[in-house]
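pasting input
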Amino acid sequence: MSGIIGYGSYVPNHRITVEEIARVWGEDPESIKNGLNIKEKSVPSRDEDAATIAVEAARKAVYHSGIDAKEIGAIYVGSESHPYAVKPTATIVSEAISAGHNFTASDLEFACKAGTAGMQMLMGMTDSNMIKYGMTIGADTSQGRPGDALEYTASAGGAAFIIGKEKKEQIAELITTVSYTSDTPDFWRREGAGFPSHGGRFTGEPGYFRHITKATELLFEKTGMKANDFDYAVFHQPNGKFPILVAKKLGFEMKQIEHGLITPVIGNTYSGASLIGLAATLDHAKPREKILVTSFGSGAGSDSFAIEVREAIEEKRKRSDKVHEMISKNKVYIDYSNYLKSRGSIKKK
Amino acid sequence: MRDVAIIGVGLTKFGERWESGLRELMAEAGLAALEDANVESKDVEIVYGGTMASGRFIGQEHVAALLADQLGFKNIPAVRIENACASGGSALRQGYMAVASGMYNLVAVGGVEKMTDATSTEATTALGGAGDQEWELSQGITFPGLYALMARRHMYEYGTTVEQMASVAVKNHDNACKNKYAQFHKKFTISDILNSKVVADPLRILDCSPISDGAAAVILAPLEIAKKYTDTPIHIIGSAQASDTLGLSDRDKITEIKATKIAAEDAFRQAKISSKDVNVLEVHDCFTIAEILAMEDMGFYKKGQAAKAIEDGETTLNSKISVNTSGGLKGCGHPVGATGIKQAVEVTLQLRGEAGERQVNGAEIGVTHNVGGSGATSVVHVMKRHN
Amino acid sequence: MERSSASLWRKINSRYNMVGNECTNCGKAYFPPRLVCKDCGRKSKMQSKKFNGTGEVYSYSKIHVPTDAFKDSAPYTVGIIKLDEGPLVEGHIIDDGKGVNIGMRVKSAFRRMDVDGEEGLIYYHFKFVPE
């Protein structure tokens, strides 16, 4: 059975606070902070994009796993902000981790869940012995239109996971996965458009909540497990509030989701969000503990995973750059004008 | 080997020469040199032209042929020499070798750069090509940036201060005020320099030589026939050149220009002089730190001691040693390809006693020092008045 | 400035991964890689060597007047880093406005160097960040 043999995550160190964004638009910061359960979000520097974030996360994952990158047989990068419309991010990553040339690669896009879709693909490929190891990455530098509600949350970050079948190398086993998918246009970005559009409150109930709930219930059904069989749960986190609400609805308690709830302090990293949440949970988890992960991608679909932590996690832990430490280290707060500048919204002649 | 002399010199006014293109500048300096040497165009046997980036600045390559063409040097061999900012000095050395070898008698050497037709970022990019394009320029490490890196380390290792660097600029601008060919005729104070715009910290705009248009030319002949053309031939008694890695970080040290050390030692040895014998010196002060490095690397001061000596006034006009009497690259201007030749023109005028109000009293021996890039090329010439 | 994509591609391993080389004849390490050892000349035996990207700041400068390709990113800080394996290497230092000093420990990161206009290629490169 396939499992996780290493992971790494990366979040840019620049932050902008809700207060600072609200100041510019004359909004009340407290109501936004309470409404979205978010304090601040990460902002990529001018010289960071989904590819550089993917590379940083991938390098940490290779180091954490202890494998030779040349043994990786497939690399998938999920993002809704690939730097190129045509030209893969995955090849940039492969070169930057010295993966050699004997592997397959592709970029994936499914709004915020392309990284977990890649994980499912790799489960099939490793279980079938098509490849020995595969890497999936979810990384984004998501954009929120100035003045839009998304601007408070759309942030940058990513995580990389290496999947393999060899049990003794696994830090966690991927017990099983199920998905729930429908054509639900809650959020989109047309080719060439600089910012995504969304259906406002339509993104909530018919989008996020329906898909996460259905996928998680399918997983319960398939595994015969219930919320209290899991030590931890990670849900996609477009803001700090939705994952808490959906967790409660599914019968989870706050203590099960708190380790993986990162959005309140870094914002919504889109394709990175559920994977960074999983990474933060693994940083803390002990062997034989069980983790539920359900991602969500607009458009729409959810992938749900049942995961059991294995012994190797302890030995590999010393090589992990822990999410909570990384995101609180070297933080630099920027103001709104520097935020616009680093997002490339202000151009010099 | 034959002894070689400079028998004529010519110079254009340096600066923003909006009315003149490359060919007008070359012709102006070239004609002045022919006139000074009392040589006809048809008598010149070969011409060497130094220019760094005419292709980048104005889209014109093949500049030596153009030089021969414009000056009426009918059908003679014409050779362009490009060694970044040391193009002029390198061209002079080629002319010197052509005469010394016995192959040619009357040799014209010109240097030119027409820079102001380019925007300042275009010029910055073009000049950046003097360093390592693949690993320096491609990373946005500009030419001032390279000297800034050298300056910062020099400050760290030897306690050199920004005020000491600024004193180089103050001195050279003072000298430029006495030179009608100089780009600037304006005195600056230390505080003017220290309050000017930052280019590549710690270097400010007034630590940097300017973007300039200009040309310079000399006519060379064997010393034995030089008196036919002039009463005061200037004898080139040492000519040396050395190279080093193109990339700054590949060097053994970044607080010295090793190519300068080697070239100066060689040139002084040929001339049978020591640094104490030099009365007048034109050094390559593309940035203020560069003059400090040059004074140390050529042996005028021990490493780490030049900055204070310059600040103390030991190198002002008619003090211990007169350095950059023309105003240097800093005050006189730096039309890149012309600079190495202009230095020879200035030393010639000084040794002839024709330098007017900036004349160094009793100047007998002069030295020119021309650097390319961040020190990948260095050319040193020693000259002496031939009585 | 539009450049040929080949000029980036041919040095991609060095630019992404700090792969330089060393002369097995004398043991001297180089970054960027050299075809010929400075000391051994024709006798040099060069073999590729990956540098781990850590070292200390040897010198630095904040560039305010950039080249064409960097006009949108100025001012930016560049420096010479003394790598732990020995060689000096030039590169960007991302100081986040906190300042840089000689002796400061840095490590390499993977960043965008520059882009060819709105539609051209994106050039990725190592840069240095505080360790």
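fyi The radius of gyration of chain B is 19 Å.
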